[in-house]
Structures are given as structure tokens and as C-alpha cells.
Amino acid sequence: MTDGIPPTRSPGRHRHRPRPRLHAAAAAAAAWAAGAALLAAPPASAAAGCSIDYTVNQWNNGFTAEVAITNLGDPIDGWTLEWEFADGQNVTGSWNGEATQSGSRVRVDDASYNAAIPSGGTVEFGFQATHTGTNGAPRAFTLNGTVCDGSTGDGDGDGDGDDTSGRQVEALGRGPVSVRSGDGNLVSWRMLATDPGGVAFNVYRGGTRVNPEPLTGATSYLDSPAPSGADYTVRPVVDGQEQEASPSALRFGRGYLDVPLQRPAGGSTPDGSYSYSANDAGVGDLDGDGAYEIVLKWQPSNAKDNSQSGYTGSTIVDAYELDGTRLWRVDLGRNIRAGAHYTQFSVYDLDGDGAAEVAMKTADGTVDGRGEVIGDAGADHRDDSGYILSGPEYLTVFEGADGSELSTVDYRPSRGNVGDWGDDYGNRVDRFLAGVAYLDGERPSLIMARGYYTRSVLVAWDWRDGRLTERWTFDSDEAGSAWAGQGNHQLSIADADGDGRDEVVYGAMAVDDDGSGLWNTGYGHGDALHVGDFLPERGGLEVFDIQERTGGAAGAHLDDAATGETLWRKPTADGQEGPGRGVAADVWAGNPGAEFWAAGGGISGLFDGQGNNIGRTPSSTNFVAWWDGDPVRELLDGTHIDSYGPEGDERLLTGEGVASNNGTKSTPALSGDILGDWREEVVWRTEDSSALRIYSTPHPTSVRMPTLMHDTQYRVAMAWQNTAYNQPPHPSYFIGDGMDAAPVPDVHTS
């Protein structure tokens, strides 16, 4: 299926929507493709502006092209030009430049003797290529990471000097909330990474300003006394001038906000009936208005672990505004089995147009948000045990605003021979993971993966200009036997090696940004994974992982994220299976940096950054959340939040009328910094699944930092949080006792 459309569907239904924020290419072109992997070395310097001129000489299925790069910015010493092709072009030779390509993505590096391009200067190179399609032009070119659209200085094509360095992120609003706190209201709001330095804020109750002077500290204000129903807005103050007011703050009059849900009707399968409960959730700005919407997975009561036979009801995915307005519903149909390991949905603005898409695995009979069927509506690929081991598998990108199908391609990797994944009955073949990563250091790519007990295959996709294109594939069968069986029940995304581009930490192994193996510890499969800057006095990031195997020297271990080198490890007790839970976070101010602990495998105690046992094991080994006023994180488990102490935990919140998800995992629907200041909200379902109940902190704070959602490691963690065995998000920098001032991420929104 080279056109990316399943054969059971008409090409006329492959829809592209308008993309208002795309950069225009500066010239018409043609393209090439060579089988080599893209080189990973960063360019010597960034370009401030550039233009491209292509001259093409074409014949039958071949062509040559002369390419001229004009530097419109500061002098460059070393250059890399990149673009993507869509029509099957393939390189057969190049001159005055070194060309490589992975899939449709092309990279050309200077030939050393033409590395320098002065301001206003031009260098030329050329290539010979073949093509199998219409030989269409690439839509955009980048020189050392800058879009070559003929503009100067800011790279966004409008010449206004806007900063478009760093990574592209959402253009979020202030997200203000008003939470009842004593006899007053704690009003909090986002400080954005894109705010000017020194931004201050004024808080208004109705038309009256409540703060005597502009607020230059924490982005929260306790207005006391005040009525619980008061209306609040926030105004930034820049260079002494008030800016436009935010929307009215959401009111958490009882400490929480209910988002009403429309619970699907239950149904029946050949072996029984089922009902639905709200399950995992994600957030994204689906309509481009600067506010988050919620995407929710409904799970049937007969959902199964892969190891269990039996039929399941279909998985349903909804999208809601925070006032309970349902935007759309996608029914994945009977050919997608229901359970924690089958449907991993990613909510993210994958193409940078200002509105999020939703991507997930689909199959024959999936119904999109407009009622259109994907594939064969009448197909039933279930076997007598309820497993689905035959029939086509798809990957679909859905429109965030209305749930309509935008593009559907074959899911990769295909299941192939079921036994190649570790068993013959359908357990290990259908273990799926998903995430989002900034593989080029600038724009997000989609990661879809299959398998981790034996064979592991990860595929990176780019969603650009209404088209899914494969960036690379990592297959443990091709990488070598050492890479088999190193995956976890979840993944994490981070710039593990500090080169500005993201890696996929897959458990006991990491895959580099170019799809090659970065490292593996050889410790095997595990159930929990944390990646972050846990030891602020040590350079780089760390990985805390636990292993499921019986016995072994590394039941729990801390590793260097760049190399996989083990910093310390704790053995599993003889004859016991390894820990089933493990957490890394700074939960106690009495120890510098983060603490680490695990549950099971005979491993007990609270460990410091050197692996020393420093005290009592916390009461839970599940989620964590920043909840009270200090930067030390709290314990989140079941339907409550506790503060850790050496002698015992202190209860800070017990959710009212709510339930946790995923059995003994006891996870919330979602937890993260989705509203207000940098502290984290917790989203639980109500006991009857009639609503999602969002709790936000009532505690004042003196800590000021940008929204965590503009730190891309944290933001992509919110995208993968719903994947398989849910894990809490971690930012790229240390937050905890004694922390330095939080950095302002290098990001832009257009």
C-alpha cells in the first residue's frame, strides 16, 4: 500500500484539511532518496534566513537538479539542508554535497570546501535521482534548522522579529482557575515560556483589581475573604502596561470541577454482556483556542489483559470541552480488542498548525467522529477465543476538532507470524506502546510500537501537510539479539544524550533520534519507568527502572540516560519475581535530589541518589504530584494525595465520590499541569462515570515557574501517560527542595 490508503477504502476519502500556519517553500523542486540513515551530527551554526532555488532536468523516471542555497542571515560555517519528498524519489548520486535519506526525509551536508556561506552568499550542489510518482516538489526546506522561506531574522516568514528558535509548542492561554481556600479563593494561572522576561500580573475580581501592586512572584494570588462564586480574570503587565484580560477563571467552588460525560450504552458479545466506565484520558488544544480539551477512553467491563481469552466490547474514545460539551465520539469497533495494552492514543499538535490531532491504531469497522467507517464495516476478525490475530491493521490520524478521519495507513509493524512475538495464542503480539518525540529537535513526530517481551519494533511517523510519512523503523530482529526483550509496559521520551533531539527510552534500552540503538542494559522487561533530572548535582538525565525477572542483580536500578551505564542497582531476592512498582521523585526535603523506591522483589526502603537506604518506604508506589506550596512532590495513589514524612505520611486530599482506574494500578484518569500555575491537577472519574472530576490545589505558593506544559519533555510525557501501565510525567529539569530557578524553555508557538 504505497499510497498509504487501505485497499478496502476509496482514495476519495483520504482527506486533507487546510493548515493555516504552514511555511511556504521558496521554490519548486524535485527530490531524491538514498537508503542510508540520516547523519546525526548537529549543524555548526544556525541560519537566520535563507532561500532555495531549484533547477530540474527531467526524463521519464529520472531527473537531475541543481540546488542553490542563499544565506540571508549571519555568516554560516557549516551547513545542512533538509526536506521531505512525497512521490517515491530516490537518489542515485550527488555532487558538491553529501546526501543521505531515511524514508522520505532528505539531508544534505556541506562538502567541507563549501561549508562557509557569507551573508548574502550562495552555494550550489546537485544530484541525480529517480522517481516513481508525479515527482512533486517538496513543500519546505530547512537550513541548519531554519525554514528557508525567503524571510530574514526570525524564520517565520513575516519579518517581524518573532523568535522561532527551539521547539514548537502550543499557544496556550492563561488557563486561570479559582479554587476555594478557607474563606477565600486561590486564583492561579499560567506563566508561559513565551512571555517576555519580567512579566507581572494583575488579578481582577469582577471589575476591581485585588492586588495592590503588579505581582512579580508566583502566578497565584489568595483573595481572602471573598465569595466562592466570584468571577476572576488575569491581566499580564509588560513594561508597566496592562495587556488583554484572560477569560474568566474556572470556578472550583468545592475544590474540584466536574466535566459531565455521556456514558455509552453497554452491549453484548458471544460470551456475555458489558457496560462502560471512564478510563484513561489525555489533553490537547483540539480547536486551537488556547484552552485544553479532554480526550477520554471508555473501557468496557469485559476488557481483557492480553493473556486472557474472551470477547470484549469495543473501545470508545470521546472528546469533551471542560463544560461537558462532547465534540465527537470514535468507536474503534469489534476488531480492536479492549484492554490496557491495545489502544494507546496520542493527543498532540503533530503538524504545528495550532490545533491538536488524535492518533491511534484502528481496524475494519472503526467509526470516526462523523460516522464514517474505516475499512470493511462488516468484517469480523475475532477468533473463537476473542483474540484478533488476522485482518488488516491501520494507523489513523483524526481531526481534533470533530474526530473525522484525516489519514489512514497500514499499521507498522504488521503482526506477521504471531509466533514471532513470543507465543502462538495472541498475548505478546498485541502489546502496543505509543508516544510523541521531537526527533529533529524542533517539531513533534509520532512513535508507534509493538512488542517488548521478545521482539520490539518502533516506528516513527511525521504528520506534515496532511500526510503521514515514515521517518524510521527500529526492529530488534535487525538490531541484534542483545536488543530483544528489553521493553517495558511503557516508554518515556527525553533528550537522553543532550544533543537537542529526543530519544525513546523503551525500558532497559534506548533508541536514538535517528532510529538506531543508543544503549541497552540487558536487564530485560520491567513494569515501571521514570526518566528525569533526578540528581541535580550530576550532569544530564537519569533513568530509574525496575525488572520483572525472578531473581537477578538489578531488580531496581538507576542508570545514566545518555549511556545506559548503571549508577547503582538493588538485587531481587532469591526466588522472588522482581518489583511490580517503582517510583523516582523528590518527596522528602531531608535528602538532596530525588528519592527512589520499589514495591516487591524483596526490595524495601527509600534510596538516595547513591543507592543508600535513607529511611521508611513511602506508603504508596504509584503516582506523584506537585500539590502543596513547596517544590517537593507528593504521593498520589488511588483517590488521595499524601505528603511523605520519615515517621508517616500526611493526608492532603481525599477525592470525594471518585474512583481510580486500572485495577490494582489505582491510577487517575490523568494527572498533570493542565490548568492554573505549575502545580498539577488530578482528574478522577466519578464513581458512576457520569463526570470527570478535576481537582486543583488550594495551597498558596511562593514558587514561580513557567507552565510545565511548555517543557517539551513534560508535555510529551502527558501524551504518553495513558500508555499501557500509566506513569507520572517528569520535566527535563530538577524540581525539588533546593532547586535552582526553573529554566525558561527555548520554545516558540508558530
Automatic annotation (TrEMBL):
InterPro entries: CBD2, CBM2/CBM3_carb-bd_dom_sf, CBM2_carb-bd_dom_sf, Ig-like_fold, Integrin_alpha_N, RGI_lyase, RGL11, RGL11_C. Residues 43-151 form the CBM2 domain. This is Cellulose binding domain-containing protein. Residues 1-20, 151-179 are annotated as: Disordered. Residues 1-46 form the signal peptide. It holds the Pfam family CBM_2. PROSITE patterns: CBM2. It comes from the Bacteria. The keyword Signal applies. Keywords: Signal.
